[in-house]
Amino acid sequence: MGYQKKSFSTPAMKGEKTMKRRHARCTYIREREAVGENMSVRETGLTLCPTMSYIGASADGYVTCHSVDTCCCGALEIKCPFSIGNESVVHLTPHLIAERFGNKFCLVKGEDGMLHLNKSHMYYAQVQGEMAIMELEWCDFVVYSGDVILVDRIWADLDYWVDSLLPKLKSFYVHIAREILCGKYFMECYEREHTTTLTA
């Protein structure tokens, strides 16, 4: 099939990423509470699409904001960048990373002068998919780097989900995922059958 895994990670790297994500989550909660939000964050696990169970999403948290009049819910997605290309960015703030790497980074400076999630970046598709599958209206996209946290609230874009992302996910499942998942099984069955025939 010719598919290759590109990423490389050691147990130490995974442990450090997990620790940074936990710290980012705690910082996010503290900062939201500091501005007067009464909120809670819980783990989500895997959520399957109600109408297409072969499509799922796993956000970093399910956020519930409580107020006197209303209760609203959203997703939480945390990114703790370690490197861009071959260059470490662990100790750089999100603003310095954006200045240095431009469109290679997930955040870009908007017309308001603030950093926002780049709509052409793969993380934008990720959070839009999470919101659609989890049936939520917003996602707090958190970037934590250099001991600085940046939160960008992303609103669900149903047109993007229906017209662009969902057709691509369906196509991936039908044409690629099934080949990856089933191809190996059928090749092993084929080889067993032909090996048995040849030796009999």
Can you tag this structure with a few keywords?
2 domains; 200 residues; two-stranded antiparallel sheet; alpha+beta; 5-stranded mixed beta sheet; globular; 11 strands; 4 helices; Lambda Exonuclease, Chain A
Task: Write down the overall geometry.
Answer: globular
CATH fold assignment of the largest domain:
Lambda Exonuclease, Chain A
- Second CATH tier, the architecture of the largest domain: Alpha-Beta Complex
Rg measurement, Å = 21 Å
Average residue-wise pLDDT? 86
Supply the number of structural domains.
Answer: 2
Describe it.
It is a single chain. With 200 residues, the chain is an alpha+beta fold. The chain folds into two domains: 146 residues, Alpha-Beta Complex (Lambda Exonuclease, Chain A); 37 residues. It has four helices and eleven strands, in the order H-E-E-E-E-E-E-E-H-E-E-H-E-E-H. The strands form four sheets. The protein has a five-stranded mixed beta sheet with strand order 1-4-5-10-11, with helices on both faces. It has a two-stranded antiparallel ribbon with strand order 2-3. A hairpin with a 4-residue loop joins strand 4 and strand 5. Helix 3 packs across helix 4.
Question: In brief, what are we looking at here?
Answer:
The protein is of the alpha+beta class and 200 residues long. The protein is 44% helix and 25% strand. The protein starts with 10 loop residues before the first helix and ends with a helix.
Structural topology:
Elements: H1 11-34, E1 38-42, E2 47-48, E3 56-57, E4 61-66, E5 71-79, E6 83-84, E7 87-88, H2 94-101, E8 107-109, E9 115-117, H3 122-134, E10 138-145, E11 148-155, H4 158-199
Parallel strand pairs: 5-10
Antiparallel strand pairs: 1-4, 2-3, 4-5, 6-7, 8-9, 10-11
Helix pairs in contact: 3-4
